[in-house]
Design a protein that fits this description.
With about 120 residues, the protein is mainly alpha-helical. It is built from 4 helices and 2 strands.
Length: about 120
């Protein structure tokens, strides 16, 4: 898993040089990893920020709509506010699945190649 702390370097094992890091950064494999991350994270970030700003704008300028009762004392504002939390958790869950399926294997391959010197 990507959040695990890496083990300390084994004494006598050389660390990759700056040139090796730069070479990996320029590689097609690293480019694919970066593209896979960005193609997921950027659109979802933009979508969530837009959704959040819509909620804020509606809260400020659409009092009548946001105050519309849905059931009892539950109004549209409360439902949309709770939907913000739900959306946050769904995006986090979705990203974790995406990372485990698409990002972690590519990152692990790059890491193994760097540590193994292959």
């Amino acid at each position: 898993m990507a959040t695990e702390t890496p083990p300390p370097a084994t004494p006598g094992t050389p660390l990759p040089s700056t040139e090796e890091f730069a070479e990996v950064q320029q590689s097609t494999e690293f480019g694919e990893l970066r593209r896979a991350h960005r193609s997921f994270a950027f659109p979802l970030t933009i979508a969530f920020i837009s959704w959040y700003l819509l909620y804020v704008l509606l809260s400020n300028y659409a009092d009548g709509f946001m105050g519309t009762k849905v059931a009892g004392n539950i109004n549209v504002a409360l439902l949309l506010g709770l939907a913000q939390f739900l959306t946050t958790f769904l995006i986090a869950w979705w990203y974790a699945r995406h990372a485990a399926a698409k990002l972690d294997p590519k990152a692990e391959a790059i890491k193994s190649r760097m540590e193994g010197g292959a």
